[in-house]
Amino acid sequence: MTTLELALLDWIQTHLRCGFLDAVMPAVTKLCDHGEIWILLALALLAVRRTRRQGAAVACGLVLDLIACNLLLKPLFDRGRPFAINPAVTLLVPPPLDASFPSGHTAASFAAVFALKASGSALWKPALGLAAAIALSRLYLYVHWPSDVLGGALLGAAAGWMGAKLAEAIQARRSPL
Hints:
By secondary structure, the protein is mostly helical. It has helices at 2-15, 19-30, 36-47, 52-77, 82-85, 104-118, 124-140, 146-174. α4 runs antiparallel to α6.
């Protein structure tokens, strides 16, 4: 699998690398270096009474993702990153120091998307576009394997959906019948 994944990453480097994307992709990836964009979205939604439910869903999804991705799966798999296998590629961002699988940027992004979708927010559509761009940026920047990004998307989808259900359950327990 690694050979096929390396071939895909090298294809991206050979056919898609250009000055414009070299400037844009680090900025896109930076939006989610620590989940910032999604944390800010959750806080903004929580601040407005009519979107508080969606904000709680996103917040719960991000917490579940953080636990599953960063505390459980990354240490468990401890997978090396592609730039360690092919050091000839010039990185456009500082090399991440943690494990590669799953992609935390992608997982957090898709956790927010699926939390929004499961909680009935129309914001899931533009969020999906941004999440896809963030996921692609991780491949473009040569810091994740394609399976890291796929695994992150699947993990994030599950965490986001569960986060929305958890937020609903918490709200139901707090609300009088």
